[in-house]
Design a protein that fits this description.
- The chain is of the alpha/beta class and 435 residues long.
- The chain is built from 16 helices and twelve strands.
- It folds into two domains: 33-376, Alpha-Beta Barrel (TIM Barrel), CATH 3.20.20.150; 390-432, no CATH class.
- An eight-stranded parallel β-barrel has the order 3-4-5-6-8-10-11-12, surrounded by five helices. The protein has a two-stranded antiparallel ribbon with strand order 1-2.
- The structure holds D-xylose and nickel (II) ion (2 copies).
Length: 435
């Protein structure tokens, strides 16, 4: 018995690039083998519970547009109905993973104990559904930013009781993630930052955030959770200044608190853009620093400058991102989470299915193009050639020397190095052969 929410929509199949069926995959064939691995195992797609099922379609100028049968989301019966519909969608899409915040899946209670009780019973319910479903948990996370108690932050709140409340919430969410066999646990510091320095003790807040994250890592080991702990960088919104600004800032923070070997990063396309970077820059940097974990694949509107959380639909952009993912060795515990929502005028259940189909197809095309670029090898060959001078014993002695030996070398050999073209346009043309 299904809920009937998706009407007569049938399981989405791969029909190939010539299909005109709007509810078929044209590029995502989960079983297609690319670079020796199934596409499903490369991409590891996940549906985000918050955008697809909990979000009601509001914006700063207006409220709910969606009117789902589980609205308002204030009792357990509706929470279970929402879970039923979620699993029906996972099955229709054949998507291997999902993600949640506790606030997406359970109604808030009138006390912490009641909220916890609601949460645990919905986790049991989801656990039962997972017995027969083929969709697994990519990550769980805590919503430490929506409720008004968190308006001044969670771990960085000036009120220690909020720090405790946040810790209790993360304990429950981490344990539930472990119970459901989740592969990662994410922390995004939505309001871990500030609006004005005039009322903020920045130094103290950073120490509290470091201590909080250390407690999370300690608890992970205590309960035997083998998944990865991931922090998700974002420069601003909702806070004016966020402490987890970008990959570089997060890495510095992890280093300072001795967590760089225990915590990796969940990197979101839209957040990279908000920070003034490209997505591929953030991915390449995370890989270089050894903290690449997982991705949130959702774009922003480039004109509005907001975190609009739109489904990806730009193949060349996605290709460059997966190129970095593949070069980093691909995902291990991580995956491709669609932290993306419909536009608020897209009311129909079919819109939800079509949005994911389009996003999965775009990502499949991007990954296949990236793999083709790697297999072709011309781009890496050009890069290697540009640095070839460094592969010589002579260059090694430069690195092993000091400023005096470098000075002596320049004078003795009368060095007069000549600039060489970076060949950017030629390389861009090369990439365009594949996308
Ligand atoms: C918000 C974040 C959020 C995290 C999970 O911008 O992307 O959705 O992914 O808390
Ligand atoms: Ni985001
Ligand atoms: Ni995100």
């Amino acid at each position: 018995m299904t809920t009937g929410f998706f009407g007569d929509i049938e399981r989405v199949r791969f029909e190939g690039p010539d299909s005109t069926n709007p509810l078929a995959y044209r590029h995502y064939d989960p079983d297609a083998v690319v670079m020796g691995k199934r596409l499903e195992d490369h991409l590891r797609f996940a549906v985000a519970w918050w955008h697809s099922f909990a979000w009601e379609g509001g914006d700063p100028f207006g409220g709910m547009t969606f009117e789902r049968p589980w609205h308002p989301q204030n009792d357990m019966g509706r929470a279970r109905l929402k879970a039923d519909v979620a699993f029906e969608m996972f099955d229709l899409l054949g998507v291997p993973y999902f993600c949640w915040h506790e606030a997406d899946i359970r109604p808030e209670g009138t006390s912490f104990a009641e909220s916890l009780h609601n949460f645990e019973s919905i986790i049991d319910y989801i656990g039962e559904k997972m017995q027969t479903a083929s969709t697994r948990l990519l990550w769980g996370t805590a919503n430490l930013f929506s409720h008004r108690r968190f308006m001044s932050g969670a771990a960085t709140n000036p009120d220690p009781d909020i720090f405790a409340y946040a810790g209790a919430t993360v304990k429950a969410c981490l344990e539930a993630t472990h119970r459901l066999g989740g592969e990662n646990y994410v922390l995004w510091g939505g309001r871990e930052g500030y609006e004005t320095l005039l009322n903020t003790d920045l130094s103290r807040e950073l120490d509290h955030l470091g201590r909080f994250l250390t407690m999370v890592v300690e608890h992970k080991h205590k309960i035997g959770f083998k998944g990865a702990i991931l922090v998700e960088p974002k420069p601003q919104e909702p806070s004016k200044h966020q402490y987890d600004f970008d990959v570089a800032t997060c890495y510095g923070f992890l280093k300072r608190y001795g967590l760089e070997n225990d915590v990796q990063l969940n990197i979101e396309q839209g957040h990279a853009i908000l920070a003034g970077h490209s997505f591929e820059h953030e991915l390449a940097l995370a890989a270089a620093l050894g903290v690449f974990g997982s991705i949130d694949m959702n774009r922003n509107d480039y004109q509005s400058g907001w975190d609009t959380d739109q489904f990806p639909n730009n193949v060349p952009e996605v290709t460059l991102a997966y190129y970095e993912v593949l070069k980093a060795g691909g995902f291990t515990t991580g995956g491709t989470n669609f932290d993306a929502k419909l536009r608020r005028q897209s009311l129909d259940p079919q819109d939800l299915i079509a949005a994911h189909i389009g996003a999965m197809d775009v990502c499949a095309r991007g990954l296949k193009s990236a793999a083709a670029m790697i297999e072709d090898g011309s781009l890496e060959a050009a890069r290697a050639e540009r640095y070839a001078g460094w592969d010589t014993p002579r260059a090694k002695t430069m690195l092993d020397g000091n400023l005096e030996t470098l000075s002596a070398m320049v004078l003795d050999e009368n060095l007069d190095p000549q600039p060489r073209s970076g060949r950017q346009e030629i390389l861009e043309n090369l990439v365009n052969r594949f996308v």
